[in-house]
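PROTEIN–LIGAND DATA SHEET

This sheet pairs a single protein chain with one bound small molecule, coenzyme A, given as SMILES. Inputs appear in the order they were entered. The predicted three-dimensional arrangement of chain and ligand is reported afterwards as a token string under its own label.
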Amino acid sequence: MVVKSDDLRIEALDHPTEGMVSSVEALLARCNGAEGLELPLDLPPPQEGIHGIRWIAAFAGSSLVGLAWIQGSNDPEVCGMVDPGCRRGGIGTALLRAAATLCRADGSSSVTLVCEAGGVSGRAFVEMKGGRYRFSEYRMAFDRTSIARTEPLTLGFQLDLAGPDDAPLVASLTDEAFGDHTWSPSGIEYEMKNLVSRFFIARHGHVPVGSSRCVAIGSQVYVTAFGIAPRYRGKGYGRQMLLRLVGVLMEEGQGQILIEVDTENRAALSLYRQCGFKETRAYRFYELSLLGSRDHLSGERVRQ
Ligand SMILES: CC(C)(COP(=O)(O)OP(=O)(O)OC[C@H]1O[C@@H](n2cnc3c(N)ncnc32)[C@H](O)[C@@H]1OP(=O)(O)O)[C@@H](O)C(=O)NCCC(=O)NCCS
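PREDICTION REPORTED AS:
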């Protein structure tokens, strides 16, 4: 389908409206189906935005022909898709340009573009736009038939659900584990209060040794920000924390349990594999500068 520039409307949204969710699902299924992808888009229930995700929709008349989504505001991650029948007409470029404008307005000087390692169009697009490859991550899914839970649990080791008063402790454990300041106590408290995420603290003999975050989206639950403070590593605490966490999630009857890990992080990869997780997908992350020449974001090629 050729989309004329007059017909194309680009619209930023805090969340897809109730009526739009089924169009987004259908577009996602067409884009995934065209290249055998599993694009990293988790749809919230209608009217419930997930904290930190913004959407940019491309409409041709009243049909949804493309969507980009921006996750986070510190180092925003951007991904997008265009209906297979409307590609190579500049819609992807228009969506990326709109995402870049929003991120620049938030004070970002660069964005991280995400595409699936096995996707031909996404990689070609991102590389053509000047994205600089940084790293790749595996998405791993917990295999319920694995023997992971037969592991003996260490005495005196416990996993506690963190409450708002624990937010500063979670922030400092996360800082220690990852060596960055991605999580602020107020951000953690915000997520807890808005029921977006749950945070857990691992303790051995009452000493906090690590923490993790769980985000439930639809029938899936993501384990993220999983870390043991460096001085407590090498003692088996990571395995204990993951086994307890998986145990809690399974007892709750959660659907698929997912975890994402840098493909170069040998220690984490081997821990997750030992605990019953298996790689299902790989994603590539690119840095795209929003400074200097904006040529790579131009390309007003929607057919006239
Ligand atoms: C990536 C995607 C969003 C691009 O959408 P689009 O509307 O086709 O993008 P544009 O028309 O603006 O393309 C801009 C340029 O990207 C490059 N490009 C895009 N798709 C390409 C492909 N399949 N092969 C080679 N180059 C490609 C080209 O240089 C193109 O310019 P040209 O058509 O003048 O040669 C779309 O292909 C898609 O939905 N892919 C699946 C989802 C995905 O992988 N998303 C990750 C991207 S963040």
